[in-house]
Write a structure and sequence with these properties.
Elements lengths: L2 H18 L5 H13 L1 H10 L8 H15 L6 H10 L9 H9 L7 H28 L6 H19 L7 H17 L11 H7 L7 E6 L5 H16 L3 E5 L4 H13 L3 H6 L4 H14 L4 E4 L6 H15 L4 E5 L14 H19 L3 E6 L20 H7 L2 E6 L2 H9 L4 E10 L5 E8 L4 E4 L5
Parallel strand pairs: 1-5, 1-6, 2-3, 2-4, 4-5
Antiparallel strand pairs: 6-7, 7-8, 8-9
């Protein structure tokens, strides 16, 4: 035997040895399969929880696969029908023959303990997956022709998916849910403020009750309508009023451009004057004072241009580690985000994956996430240019995953007002979708030179 063959032989034996002693629970797997043959309802419970490879033994995997196929084909599932199905498909000997099926049928499992059996099998499955991931991490360390960042991102995604497997869904009784609701109602009665994070705009907060935790909010509009400006206004209001950290992902503008905008908002000095440096002595006094205040703001900017979805979780964990809490996340803007997977065929599918990820992230970290979005050019070709949900670019997944969709719009009357009052524009903020509330619209004033929004009755 050659040295290469010996090396491969030793590696194969080592792999077999590792697999032989991987964590598993033979009896729990057997009891689950017996439950499936005894009770039709047990099949649906198990299918929602256990994938096929959660079973360690190959014959158990084949039996489970056969039961899944029979269930999907609406066939009766018991020992006899399973025997016939396996025999007809030529897999009876593969699972160990009639003897194995007789053993499963002869078991008298207690269905009360089905969930406990599932927990035991899933525990071993996750441990095996963790071991496998560990070996993948070791092997990846030797791969030098792939960027280290890609390897680490891929590893983080797999570890994140594994972590989600551990989080078993908990069932809550109506009593537990109503107790929490009663406490919430009592708190609202004693302290009648928006239940979520107040945006700082009175009419908007009255309509949406603030930005709710775990919500995905879409702020959409055509270019130069004020999406970024409004989101920065909201960020500043939350920082000032709630003293909560805000994380701003800017995929289009640099961190310096973002800070110039914020300085313009706070000092009432136009960006043009700030960037040119044409400032009076009074401006310098005001600017110095504002910079000292803003330097202490818990406002964080990430201006990575090719931001991938897994980067967001990494940044959130960093801020949580440093600040212990997060108030709001803003992404500017949605259509510039990317996914690491190369198998996605269309941009619509990719965006669907992005919005689903953002919604899951909002729920995981229990924070509101505002994602800015472009509107399609179709709105410009209509007589009525008021945007609707279908105007969202690649709108299907956005509309489905979002809890709240806001759209910026300026109609003809508002434009007439703007021409007469060049420093201030009237903008409509359309509430196009609200999962747990009414739709409608609110009006805001926008000072374009300062990138600043105001309530309609505010004297700016």
């Amino acid at each position: 035997m050659s040295s290469t063959a010996k090396q491969n032989f030793n590696l194969d034996n080592k792999q077999l040895l590792i697999e032989k002693y991987l964590p598993h629970n033979f009896l729990a797997e057997k009891m689950i399969l017996s439950c499936l043959l005894m009770n039709y309802e047990a099949i649906e419970i198990t299918f929602r929880t256990l994938p096929r490879n959660a079973f360690y033994f190959r014959n158990h995997q084949e039996i489970y696969k056969a039961i899944m196929q029979m269930y999907k084909n609406e066939m009766t599932v018991d020992g006899l029908t399973l025997f016939s199905f396996l025999q007809d498909n030529g897999t009876l000997e593969k699972v160990g023959g009639v003897k194995v099926l007789v053993e499963l049928v002869s078991q008298i499992p207690n269905l009360i303990y089905l969930e406990e059996y599932i927990r035991l099998v899933k525990d071993k499955f996750i441990r095996r997956s963790l071991i496998k991931l560990g070996y993948e991490a070791i092997n990846s360390g030797y791969i030098t022709n792939v960027p280290l960042e890609n390897i680490l991102n891929d590893f983080e995604i797999k570890l994140f998916n594994l972590t989600n497997e551990i989080k078993a869904p908990k069932l809550f009784s109506s009593g537990e849910i109503l107790t929490d609701i009663f406490s919430e109602l009592k708190e609202k009665f004693l302290n009648p403020t928006p239940s979520g994070l107040a945006s700082g705009f009175y009419d908007l907060d009255c309509c949406i009750q603030g930005f709710q935790k775990s919500d995905l909010i879409i702020l959409a509009g055509r270019p130069s309508m004020g999406k970024t400006a409004l989101s920065l206004n909201i960020a500043l209001n939350i920082i000032k009023n709630e003293n909560l950290p805000v994380l701003f992902f800017s995929l289009e503008m640099s961190k310096e451009q973002i800070m110039y905008r914020l300085l313009s908002m706070e000092t009432n000095i136009t960006q043009m004057r700030l960037k040119s440096g044409r400032l009076s002595q009074e401006d310098w006094v005001k600017l110095t004072k504002i910079i000292k205040i803003m330097a202490k703001f818990p406002f964080f900017v990430d201006d990575t241009s090719n931001l991938a979805i897994q980067d967001i979780r990494s940044r959130l964990k960093t801020i949580l580690f440093e600040q212990n809490k997060i108030g709001l996340v803003i992404i500017d803007y949605l259509q510039l985000m990317q996914t690491p997977q190369s198998k996605i065929e269309t941009r619509v599918q990719e965006l669907s994956q992005i919005t689903r990820f953002l919604k899951n992230t909002a729920r995981e970290f229990n924070i509101p996430i505002i994602a800015l979005s472009q509107l399609s050019r179709n709105v410009e070709n209509r007589i009525d240019k008021k945007p609707i949900l279908s105007d969202l670019r690649e709108s299907g997944s956005i509309e489905q995953d979002a809890d709240l969709i806001l759209m910026l719009y300026q109609n003809s009357k508002q434009k007439e007002f703007s021409e007469k009052n060049q420093d201030t524009q009237l903008i409509e903020l359309i509430i196009a979708k609200q999962r747990n509330g009414p739709i409608g619209k609110v009006k805001l004033k926008f000072a374009a030179t300062q990138n600043k929004f105001f309530d309609i009755d505010t004297n700016d």
